[in-house]
Write a structure and sequence with these properties.
three-stranded antiparallel β-sheet; Methyltransf_11; 45% helix; seven-stranded mixed β-sheet; single chain; alpha/beta; binds S-adenosylmethionine; Methyltransf_Superfamily; ArsR family transcriptional regulator; Rossmann fold
Length: 323
């Protein structure tokens, strides 16, 4: 999108300050909360918030509240974003200031990942019980089956497979299925479950949702069930999941609608308190899929958690890439 000279000056002014440039560089890695930015920058919350306000007013960053936390991310698809990318691209890779910030960010992300891995390892055996704390799993699973109708995918890939529930629910209708998870403890239980379900053509692998190592367009159905809200960069996970979808295939995301159960961060390692339709549909669209809402399943009491099912479809005439 082309900018007027006045807009360009406003954007350059907003970005033309050391802390604000550092913030833009940090947000180019992933969305971050204000508190995380304060920790990395070593500055007080009022100061960081003032910088963020200026960046938001210039349209360079977007603010999104998530429960009691407030996150920021770089705005996408604007002329301002083009200028930011250009400016960041001019800075040498080994720049000492930005490198120190990136190292700090990696340390924080590492702490988060360790806490989450420890949580999943601790809870692997109890996971199916914990899953049912939220809403009726039977209802969710029957909504998933309804949304899929008669579809019989050649290859089903389940990302963040956990104890293998999606594989046992859907593996029977797929030609082959593959589950990836970072937690060996979860994979061990999933192996037992898929064995009990008699799913011979089902493979379980240790793998990362952000870098699956699978070829483009390999899958007819990819499921991401109750995984996104744990992740530091859910948009990147959606992009990687979408990359795997072949022509006519479907990415199905099952997660929570925005909610206020703050204790889930502390006690259950949730990072995001749900996702809006707008956010998920935007990510699906950015990944070249046609997004839609398959189901909205509130709790019976109307309080607590609403489960959403979203799907993104790859056009049937989409050309597979040469990769
Ligand atoms: C809440 S469990 C959901 C498991 C399963 N999809 C289900 O609904 O029962 C989240 C799973 O995501 C896995 N996970 C978290 N981060 C991951 C990552 N970066 N790559 C792959 N799996 C991940 C965890 O190990 C855990 O098994």
């Amino acid at each position: 999108m082309a900018l007027s000279s006045g807009q360009a000056v406003e954007i350059l002014r907003a970005a033309g300050e050391t802390t604000r440039l550092r913030i833009l560089a940090l947000l180019s890695h992933e969305e971050l909360s204000v508190l995380e930015l304060c920790r990395i920058l070593g500055q007080s919350q009022p100061r960081v918030s003032r910088h963020l306000k200026l960046l938001a007013e210039a349209g360079l960053v977007e603010r999104f509240p998530d429960g009691a936390w407030v996150f920021y991310r770089l705005t996408v698809g604007t002329g301002g974003r083009g200028l930011v990318d250009l400016a960041l691209g001019l800075i040498a890779d080994g720049d000492a200031v930005l490198k120190k910030d990136a190292d700090q960010l990696a340390a924080i992300a590492g702490e988060r990942a360790e806490a989450a891995a420890a949580y999943f390892a601790r809870n692997a055996a109890r996971w199916d019980e914990i899953r049912s704390l939220y809403v009726s799993e039977t209802e969710v699973e029957s909504a998933i089956l309804d949304a899929l109708g008669e579809e019989q995918p050649g290859l089903l890939v389940d990302l963040g497979a956990g104890t293998g529930r999606m594989l046992t629910l859907l593996g029977g209708r797929a030609g082959r299925s593959l589950g990836l998870d970072l937690s060996q403890q979860m994979l061990n239980i999933a192996r037992m479950h898929v064995g009990e379900a008699g799913l011979a053509a089902c493979e379980l692998r240790h793998g990362d949702i952000f870098a699956t190592g699978l070829p483009d367009g390999v899958a007819d159905l990819v499921t991401v069930h109750q995984v996104l809200h744990y992740l530091n960069d859910p948009a990147a996970a959606v992009a990687e999941a979408a990359r795997l979808i072949g022509p006519g295939g479907r990415l199905m995301i099952i997660d929570f609608a925005p909610h206020r159960l703050e204790y889930l961060r502390e006690q259950h390692q949730h990072r995001r308190l749900g996702f809006s339709d707008e956010e998920i549909l935007r990510w699906l669209d950015a990944a070249g899929l046609e997004g839609g809402i398959d189901a909205t399943l509130p709790t019976a009491s109307g309080e607590g958690l609403t489960v959403k099912i979203w799907s993104g479809r790859r056009a049937a005439d989409h050309k597979r890439s040469a990769a």
